[in-house]
Amino acid sequence: MRAFHTHTGLVVPLDRVNVDTDQIVPKQFLKLLTKDGYGPFLFYDWRYLPGGQPNPEFPLNARRYQGASVLVTRANFGCGSSREHAPWALVDFGFRAILAPSYGDIFYSNCFQNGLLPVILGEEQVEEVFRRTLAREGYRLTVDLAAQRISDDAGLDYRFEVDPFRRECLMNGWDEIGLTLRYEDRIAAYERERRPAAPLYGGEVDAAARREAETG
Amino acid sequence: MPARTMYEKIWDAHVVVEKAGEPSLIYIDRHLIHEVTSPQAFSGLKAAGRRVRRPDLTFAVMDHSVPTKDRHLPVLDAGAAAQFEALARNCREHGILLLDMKSRHQGIVHIIGPELGLTQPGLVIVCGDSHTSTHGAFGALAFGIGTSEVEHVLATQCLAQFRSKTMRVQINGRRPPGVTAKDLILAVIGRIGTGGGTGHVIEYAGAAIRALSMEGRMTVCNMSIEAGARAGMVAPDDTTFAYLEGRPFVPRGKDFQVAVDYWKSLATDPGARYDRVVELDAGHIAPQVTWGTNPGMVADVTGRVPDPACFADPVERRTAERALEYMGLEPGTPIEEIPLDRVFIGSCTNSRLEDLRLAARVLEGKRIAPRLKQALVVPGSMAVKAQAEQEGLDKIFRAAGFEWRDAGCSMCIAMNADVLPSGERCASTSNRNFEGRQGKGGRTHLVSPLMAAAAAVEGHFVDIRKWPEAVAAE
Ligand code: SF4
Prior knowledge:
The complex is a heterodimer. By secondary structure, chain A is an alpha/beta fold. Chain A is built from 10 helices and 7 strands. Chain A has helices at residues 21-24, 44-47, 85-93, 105-112, 123-135, 164-172, 176-181, 184-194, 198-201, 207-214; strands at residues 6-14, 70-73, 97-100, 117-120, 140-144, 149-151, 157-159. Chain A has a 7-stranded mixed beta sheet with strand order 4-3-2-1-5-6-7. By secondary structure, chain B is an alpha/beta fold. In chain B, the strands form 5 sheets. Chain B has a 5-stranded parallel beta sheet with strand order 5-4-3-6-7. In chain B, strands 17-16-15-18-19 form a 5-stranded parallel beta sheet. In chain B, α2 crosses α5 and α6 packs parallel to α8. Chain B is globular. The relative contact order of chain B is 0.13. The chains are: A alpha/beta, B alpha/beta. Iron/sulfur cluster binds next to loops of chain B.
């Protein structure tokens, strides 16, 4: 996973609440076997008109926001479906950080698995970033994960909170599976200890049931 | 030990590693996988040279993109076919039980888990699908995960998780006739909003929840995610045990008794604290119909499409305006006057036997309205389909003008050929009315199976409570 320390980039506003992952990547693009190449499908049904031309009303298509890497948006961003295609598409498109008052839970953890930083700010702070983004063409922000601050060159300086463990993983680009495998002996011990109570926990599922299900 | 909630009891029993400053490593008892969110996880596993740690606790099914008719023919959609092949190959390579399109147990992952008895109280169950919350109806801790986490569970049978906050949704009183589990949960989401449960695990309690069948409880827990909650739960009781006894993967004989004794210990202790409590009275809930583009945009069937001007918050006002524009609705329109093009009865929310029985009772001896272009019933599983046919429900649906299909997600997500065309309006028993969910430009209204069936007959929404003969069915 790509590590995240500090990032300065152009900000694009998406002034909508409850943006669900069905909008971030519509289902017609979920039939691939890879994790790459979803950028062109990002916000597809909003970004393109029925004929396939870019929708001029959609912010990502505006000339002033070309090359944006920071997305500022509203509450409950990424709610709905668990599809990790949503962060894959945001990253592939070039986003490194998102600023919003809140996120869907599954989307929020999916971001951290993909080197994308979802920053949580207060409603008022998000409003201020919207104001500044709209007021000045080429508006850029710096997101500093080590210091847990976002700032611009005109005095904006907000602190944000992120779980220390998630922060460390993201700053180091650690592979979470590798981290868990350090505890292999603990996992094995847990499995051993629970075995006597297997029927309760389903530690061993019934072999006959498997055969029955298979012969379906 | 201090009083604990059911969530805390299950959590505590599954902690493998707990370290200050780190998320807990919790053990996963059941990992359900399907064709859409698993291929990249298996590729990742392979790239890292890792194996599936517990293939015996991993169960696979094809559901999201499966065709619902002509299954004997090859799948024409190349993308879907490639995902089916990948799933079959991965399951073969790793020794994972797969229920493919030929299996008589095939169905939507959240329907077949409980049906086979894979879902049991006290278990931690995950799946790369947000509606995994369904399984919480049994008093399990069940939640959806992303593909990276699917890979994590495949490799380690564990997940690094932070403890959630807890919310108790207490639904007191009695459901009036014609008001179903679907209406209860839509009313809850209408009350707390689509983000109202974010960061929480919801436990549903109260007389109206206790009175629900397992099917009804699954409908309620299924839509927890639509309130933003990652999981929903109901304490197991005699209704739960009766449902489970005799199912293929449920312990038998003496083991079953041991299991029941354990399951009884899971209920939240008296005096345990929740971070938030919400109370509703079922007696005041009417049949619900969504009017907008998220499940929180919902009204009583006797109500009207709201006027965005009434929303004080400017962001909410703009959102409502956008939603009405997408839905092609005028503010103030009575819900009962909204005309329909299609009706879909299906999805992991409402396609179990009980749902089909209710809908069939409404449709018996009636015909769908001539204005409808399509009325579709997609049973949640092939087992539901077989049972429904034994009861003759298929004949009632067909005689009424419905199409009767094979099991799958179908028009809930429209990844197969069952798509709601742009601009058309559908009464749907599914769980998401997001823009484009049932097909690009399609307009979805979420309702109960009773309401969907009645709407099919009239060609617009009707208050099912005015149909005493249908309501008596419950
Ligand atoms: S029926 Fe719909 S909501 Fe349920 S698993 Fe399938 S696509 Fe998801």
